[in-house]
Amino acid sequence: MTVSTSADDRPPLDRPPLDLAVLSADDALLPGLRVEVVEEAGSTNALVAEWARAGEPEGLVVVAEHQTAGRGRLDRRWETPPRAALTFSVLLRPRVAPASWPWLPLLSGYAVGKALRAVGHDAAVKWPNDVLLGGRKVAGLLVERVESPAGPAAVVGIGLNVSTTRDELPVEQATSLALESGGAAAPDRTALLVGLLASLGESYVAWQEGGADAEARLAESYAAACDTVGRDVRVDLPSGEPLHGRASGVDANGRLLVDHDGRTTAVAAGDVVHVRAQA
Ligand code: BTN
């Protein structure tokens, strides 16, 4: 007998909604964070940017159960099925000097990787802030600066694939927590969100309030979690040009240092491909 396994025959995926009671409990979140869950949104980054322009103080978090026009880095899109992922944005108003702002995307990717490691996933960061499991991308971040009458703000947008199936992922190099968990039930998105926000908050506070050494400490922690340094890479630069070389470090401004043709180029933006495993 042949058993058909068309999409229609599969058992429905269990994708419960976020637990609003947990998220609104007094001690669930770091002080100052306020979570709004919306059923559907085009882009949570766009929503939070609007709030920022209207003067909202830092700490607002908007989560979409279904994000339909998510924005990615380098003008890409980020789309996920309803309740299969965590798609959310956090409004921050950093008080650090403008020269330090480029660290925020790296700090955020580092914090997501740390939160996933805390719940047993062997997460690494690909410069600047893709989060990888087993070499595949499980989370992407888009950090955008917004000008507002109350001063500049940052919107930290995070997309994490939770129960997304292989068929639902847009590219072969992507993965989800469920796919990497060897058949275990998909983790609870509410608990994950609480853990991600705690990790982000902790790294953010340490960076802002850690005094003169805070950035050096962040640079050290980031380098330890970053899987790119030491690898042969191809960087697709915003100009469209590829840069081939070996990633040798991250400079004081968070730029990726790439050794090639007898010299070193500091890359501020680009899409990195890990070409060969680290020796
Ligand atoms: C990337 O890897 O290209 C970044 C993807 C960032 C996606 C997140 S999902 C929540 C937030 N809202 C958006 O529109 N984008 C970010």
Any descriptors?
seven-stranded mixed β-sheet; five-stranded antiparallel β-sheet; 5 helices; 31% strand; globular
Short synopsis of the structure:
This protein has 5 helices and 14 strands. By secondary structure, the chain is an alpha+beta fold. A 7-stranded mixed beta sheet has the order 1-2-5-9-8-7-6, with helices on both faces. A 5-stranded antiparallel beta sheet has the order 13-12-11-10-14, with no helix packed on it.
Task: Summarize the structure in words.
The structure is a single chain. This protein has helices spanning 20-23, 44-53, 103-118, 189-209, 214-225, and strands spanning 34-41, 60-67, 70-71, 77-78, 85-92, 123-126, 130-133, 136-146, 153-161, 232-236, 242-250, 256-260, 263-267, 271-276. It is α+β, with helices and mostly antiparallel strands and 279 residues long. Helix 3 (103-118) packs across helix 4 (189-209) and helix 3 (103-118) packs across helix 5 (214-225). The longest helix has 21 residues, at 189-209. It starts with 19 loop residues before the first helix and ends with a strand. The chain binds biotin. Biotin is lined by residues 43-45, 67, 70-73, 76, 78, 87-89, 130, 140-142, 157-159.
Largest sheet: number of strands, sense, barrel closure = 7 strands, mixed
End-to-end CA span:
49 Å
Spans of at least 5 consecutive residues whose pLDDT stays below 50 are 1-9
Structural classification: alpha+beta
Share of helix, binned: 10-25%
Global Rg: 19 Å
Determine the strand fraction and express it as a percent band: 25-35%
Placed side by side, the strands forming the largest sheet appear as: 1-2-5-9-8-7-6
Task: Say which molecules are bound, naming each kind only once.
Answer: biotin
Shape: globular
Order of helices and strands: HEHEEEEHEEEEHHEEEEE
Number of strands: 14
- The multimeric state of the shown protein is single chain
Number of helices: 5
Mean pLDDT: 92
